[in-house]
Design goal:
Elements: H1 2-12, E1 16-17, E2 23-24, H2 27-38, H3 41-63, E3 69-71, E4 74-80, E5 86-94, E6 102-107, E7 112-116, E8 126-133, E9 139-149, E10 153-163, H4 174-182
Parallel strand pairs: 4-10
Antiparallel strand pairs: 1-2, 3-5, 5-8, 6-9, 7-8, 9-10
Helix pairs in contact: 1-2
Length: about 180
Amino acid sequence: MEKQLKRTIVSHTRQKTLPGGEKSWTIATFVLRLYKIMRNPAVRLLIVAVSCFAGSLGLSAQTSGNDPLEISAAHDFGTIRHGRPVHYTFTLINRGTDSLRIEQVSASCGCTTPEWSKDPVPPRGTGAIKVGYNAAAEGIFEKTVTIVYNQGKSKTIVIKGQVGKPMSSAPVNSSVQLLKQTN
């Protein structure tokens, strides 16, 4: 089979001469060279070792995924009015087999206020973390809230959005503008 493969590849191999006298080989030549390299037992062993190592990395990533706290990573408020506080309640689920105790919830700045229950969340139970934003500053915002639970484990969630321009306290009176122009 090897000889037939070699004959097939060689019959499809065409060598081209490029400007400057360099020679270019087709894909068939590359495949033939790769086949010769793969016949070496040391190369095969190396490929098996790398594959096993890569597989174990994937396995360890899956086994470290046994985090009992499940919560959405972010909430986008969209565009909100200046000076109007907004709130969003993140629902959390305890996917573990033991109670989940929220130890601390802290915001990245004073404009963001988290509220949560100190009661433990039973296995397969749900809890809530209410996060408020005061919308005092105009522009785009992105604030983080860090949740510390079960003896020092932590997870960070994000709130984001955009605070619109402040609205004037009274609508513009076009009649006043008209009076100013006539005087």
